[in-house]
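HOLO CASE FILE
Compound: pyridoxal-5'-phosphate
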Amino acid sequence: MKLFDVYPLNDITIDHGQGSYVWDDQGQQYLDLYGGHAVISIGHTHPHYVKRVETQLHKLGFYSNSIKIPLQVELAELLGKVSGKEDYQLFLCNSGAEANENALKLASFYNNRKKIVAFKKAFHGRTSLAVAVTDNKNYQAPVNENNQVVFLPFNDEQALQDYFDQCGQEISSVIVEGIQGVGGIHVASDGFLQCIRRLCTKYDAIFIADSVQCGYGRSGKFYSHDHAGVAADIYSMAKGMGNGFPIAGISIAPKLHPKFFMLGTTFGGNHLACAAGLAVLEIIQKDQLMQQAAELGNYLINALKELPNIVEIRGRGLMIGIELPESLSEVKKNLLFKHKIFTGEAKPNVIRLLPALNITKVEADIFLTALKSELVG
Ligand SMILES: Cc1ncc(COP(=O)(O)O)c(C=O)c1O
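Model generated. Tokens follow.
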């Protein structure tokens, strides 16, 4: 059998990793500022993480959600504490798309409405509702077309106000990334997020904060929406949550009440996933990684401002987009193959930095030196 060929691949086989470094099968070392797409939050093979997952694996890897799983309760308590949302409720699942799928569904259960507001350039995942609120026709099959979804311009308070004026009573939810990732690192303005909060409250619509990529401390606060001082009704999260172990979840405001079987999953919240999730939060808390992300992010952004030939630098904390001119479209490839540094990308010509939250200044400087050499040619 062959693999179903859906990804354009770099000709590199990563064999092992430690901290912010990975090594290929030839023994070549790479600095990882991509974090396997924002997934590696506490560094590759972090000793505490390895130990907690390994210990759990020796005890029990999985049992179904038909029995009590104290690790889930422990995870919910710690997540509530670290995220500052102790009165919220946690539903665990396996991926970012699934988290958004459940969030959108729960909103509709809550207010018995169907319309969803999403934004231009949004990415929320590949499953049916998640892809329906994703602004990219290439990802949608005909069966995913959904005439209940409207895409409004991002960061446009007036357009949002006008749409709510027109049909606010029919809107079930508004879903928004605090920082658009796939869309090219665009930060939602504080005013825009406050406007979403105000209108959702007024019309009893549900504010869904997609924190799959921008959440879990990456922006320097637990949820990037926190920078605007607003509380969403549902936060979806995934990537950084398990440092590579598939675990995702939604954090749900107290006003949304559960009913048996309204949501469910076989694998979500299994013993191993919870052990991985707990290890990540314990390290975020113990090593003050949110503060670290804020500090290193500021350091990188300020240093990047000194470099020539950059069109724009966007982002917050350790979610940074560096837009380059068309003439420098080879830079990302050169960083990887010449300088042995992994970065992410977004169209049209944006380098995305999504490193582990405990990346050091020394590692940041290695990147800055390499980038500078490419920009000055
Ligand atoms: C903001 C956002 N939401 C949702 C998803 C989907 O997550 P997953 O690939 O785990 O389904 C992604 C993935 O890149 C994302 O960036």
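CASE NOTES: The chain has a mean pLDDT of 97. The chain has eleven helices and 17 strands.
CLOSED: yes
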